[in-house]
Write a structure and sequence with these properties.
By secondary structure, the protein is an alpha+beta fold. It has one domain. The chain is about 35% helix and about 25% strand. The protein is globular and about 30 Å long.
Length: about 70
Amino acid sequence: MNEVVTKLINLPIAIHAFTVRTPDGDFCICINARLGSTAQLQAYKHELKHIGRDDLYKRGSADLIEIYAHRF
């Protein structure tokens, strides 16, 4: 795994976190600063699972990827 940078940013409350790939090939996990610390940690761990499963490279809708991620 490449470097993982984490940022706290204000997002709509319905969005807990998201991950993007930087031009250098690293990952940037953006976590909602409006969440409590426990929810932020859960969101961080969830995004790490997406990175570990190579979900950023999968084709298909983000909704389907999320459904699959929550089931397995």
